[in-house]
Design a protein that fits this description.
By secondary structure, this protein is α+β, with helices and mostly antiparallel strands. The protein has helices at residues 10-14, 29-36, 62-74, 84-91, 95-100, 114-124, 132-136, 140-148, and strands spanning 3-9, 20-25, 45-51, 106-108, 153-155, 161-163. It has two domains: 3-74, Ubiquitin-like (UB roll); 77-165, Arc Repressor Mutant, subunit A, CATH 1.10.10.
């Protein structure tokens, strides 16, 4: 997953010039300075746009963003990355908190309804060893609704159920 930022030379921008560029992270800071002319009176930059699964402030440090980009590369196969921003918003995590607990996040990619999640939990055996006959009598819609009120689980914007500790 690529993280991209649109960086502008702040000094030139305040003077009315429109000189910004898109950069894919991690990025060489010297390359940014050269391309945007960040020298002398024009050493400050600002981020005017971004493409990332989490929010980036306009004055975020490029060093910090480069470190985050490396963490994304290291966890490239983890499906929780797609929902990073939503998980952070739901739990109140920082990006550091997110990566510290990424291995405890479970993304139920096949569960887009609370009833799907309830059925998954039942058939997985999380509610005990139930016979198939008993499983057939369960109201999965009601059980799913009840599970949705619990802590540690929420429904992402695309409907996917996500569990965290």
């Amino acid at each position: 997953m690529e993280i991209k930022v649109y960086i502008v030379n702040l000094g030139k921008y305040t003077e009315g010039a429109r000189n910004g560029e898109w950069f894919t992270l991690p990025v060489d800071l010297e390359d940014v300075k050269t391309k945007l002319g960040l020298v002398g009176d024009y050493e400050e930059y600002t981020i005017h746009d971004f493409e990332a699964p989490f929010k980036i402030s306009e004055f975020e440090s490029l060093d910090n963003l480069n470190k985050i980009a490396v963490l994304f590369e290291e966890h490239a196969g983890n499906s929780a990355l797609k929902y990073c921003g939503e998980i952070m918003d739901e739990i109140g995590y920082t990006i550091s908190d997110f990566f510290d607990s990424i291995d405890s996040v479970i993304v139920y990619e096949e569960c887009h309804l609370w009833s799907d999640y309830a059925r998954y939990i039942v058939y997985k055996g999380d509610l005990g060893d139930l016979t198939d006959k008993v499983k057939g009598y369960i109201d999965y819609t009601s059980l799913g609704r009840d599970l949705s009120f619990g802590t540690g689980v929420f429904q992402a914007g695309d409907g996917t159920i996500i569990q965290y500790e």
